[in-house]
């Protein structure tokens, strides 16, 4: 098979290679997917950069955890009815060496979901990390039906999907965006109220949610935690999947007096049952239409280094896919 890989970490052009590798075969409990599209996430780029100081976990890594395609083989213990089905997968390169940046990818059955006919392979390839993180961030604090949920960064990849899922779950959804040009995207995703970020955000949120908000999905924990505390109700919760800085100063006593629950979310280590619940809902949502993950750029497999550079340089909005 043709695949992209790296055997050392570093800049894209210096580390990523494209060439031939032996075709993988599914072991017991696994499926083999003939990949049509491979989703590229910031986390994939950070692993290649060694941003977290972990080093090379395996001698050779095929990057990218998310992808979509058609099942062409199954291992022992897997129903043969999977063969020929359109699917999307997640976690292919989570604690595993070989991800979806290849013509063939082998993954455990638990990491695979059927892709509705209404959805393209590209849409399926973008679901994994962003969609499952969005679902976990929205629902980790408990039921959201009839509650007020604030999505910080409601026009981003995770944020726009979180808006869609929170609206689908029956919440009153407030989304914030950084730029005026993003207002429409958050509104289209389903937010009842879309507000520009700024120094007076607390007052503007109070104008549409005078009793405060029940739950906050947070993309910039260090920058926003002080304002988040002011906007939360007694017993509210925060689910943060990213931060603008690695360390944060928190208003401990104010959070304690409100009995605020704070959830820090790392997508690789969500419980499997949470990932499966997210996959089920995301698949159902796809049947109703897009889930807020637009494609911003496409690259062929031979240009996988350019795909990583696109994300590193933040060269445009939307998600990045590698077509196989």
| Assembly state of the chains shown | single chain
**Text of the CATH class of the largest domain:** Alpha Beta
Architecture (CATH level 2) name of the largest domain? Alpha-Beta Complex
Number of domains: 2
Distance between the termini: 11 Å
Question: Nutshell version of this structure?
Answer:
This protein is an alpha/beta fold. The chain has 2 domains: 2-127 and 293-323, Quinone Oxidoreductase, Chain A, domain 1 (Alpha-Beta Complex), CATH 3.90.180; 131-268, Quinone Oxidoreductase, Chain A, domain 1 (Alpha-Beta Complex).
What would you say this structure looks like, in words?
This protein is of the alpha/beta class and about 325 residues long. It has 2 domains: about 1-125 and about 295-324, Medium-chain alcohol dehydrogenases, catalytic domain (Quinone Oxidoreductase, Chain A, domain 1), CATH 3.90.180.10; about 130-270, Medium-chain alcohol dehydrogenases, catalytic domain (Quinone Oxidoreductase, Chain A, domain 1, Alpha-Beta Complex), CATH 3.90.180. About 30% of the residues lie in helices and about 25% in strands. The protein has 11 helices and 15 strands. The protein has helices spanning about 10-15, 40-50, 120-125, 130-140, 155-170, 185-190, 200-210, 220-230, 250-255, 270-285, 305-310, and strands at about 1-5, 15-20, 30-40, 65-75, 85-90, 105-110, 110-115, 150, 170-175, 195, 215-220, 230-240, 260-265, 295-300, 320-324. The strands form 3 sheets. Strands 3, 4, 5, 6, 7, 14 and 15 form a 7-stranded mixed beta sheet that branches. Strands 10-9-8-11-12-13 form a 6-stranded parallel beta sheet, with helices on both faces. Strand 11 (about 215-220), helix 8 (about 220-230) and strand 12 form a beta-alpha-beta unit. Helix 4 crosses helix 5 (about 155-170), helix 4 (about 130-140) packs across helix 10 (about 270-285) and helix 7 (about 200-210) crosses helix 8. The longest helix is centred in the last third of the chain and has 15 residues, at about 270-285. The protein is globular. The model has no long low-confidence stretch (mean pLDDT about 95).
């Amino acid at each position: 098979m043709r695949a992209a890989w790296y055997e050392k970490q570093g800049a894209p052009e210096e580390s990523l290679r494209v060439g031939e590798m032996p075709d993988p075969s599914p072991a017991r409990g696994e499926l083999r997917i003939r990949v049509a599209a491979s989703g590229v996430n910031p986390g994939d780029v950070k692993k290649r950069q060694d941003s977290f100081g972990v080093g090379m976990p395996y001698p050779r890594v095929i990057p990218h955890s998310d992808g979509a395609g058609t099942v062409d083989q199954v291992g022992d213990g897997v129903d043969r009815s999977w063969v020929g089905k359109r699917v999307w997968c997640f976690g292919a390169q989570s604690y595993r060496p070989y991800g979806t940046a290849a013509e063939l990818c082998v993954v455990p059955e638990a990491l695979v979901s059927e892709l509705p006919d209404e959805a393209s392979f590209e849409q399926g390839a973008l679901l994994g990390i962003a969609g499952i993180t969005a679902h976990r961030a929205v629902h980790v604090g408990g039921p959201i039906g009839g509650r007020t949920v604030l999505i910080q960064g409601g026009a981003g990849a995770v944020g726009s999907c979180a808006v869609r899922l929170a609206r689908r779950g029956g919440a009153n959804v407030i989304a914030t965006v950084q730029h005026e040009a993003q207002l429409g995207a958050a509104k289209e995703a389903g937010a009842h109220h879309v507000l520009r970020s700024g120094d007076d955000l607390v007052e503007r949120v109070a104008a549409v949610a005078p009793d405060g908000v029940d739950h906050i999905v947070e993309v910039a924990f260090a920058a926003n935690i002080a304002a988040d505390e002011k906007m939360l109700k007694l017993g509210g919760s925060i689910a943060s999947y990213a931060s603008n800085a690695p360390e944060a100063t928190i208003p401990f006593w104010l959070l304690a007096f409100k009995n605020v629950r704070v959830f820090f979310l790392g997508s690789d280590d969500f419980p499997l049952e949470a990932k499966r619940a997210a996959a089920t809902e995301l698949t159902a949502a796809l049947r109703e239409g897009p889930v807020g993950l637009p494609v911003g750029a496409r690259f062929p497999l031979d240009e996988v280094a350019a795909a990583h550079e696109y994300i590193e340089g933040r060269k445009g909005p939307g998600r990045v896919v590698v077509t196989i």
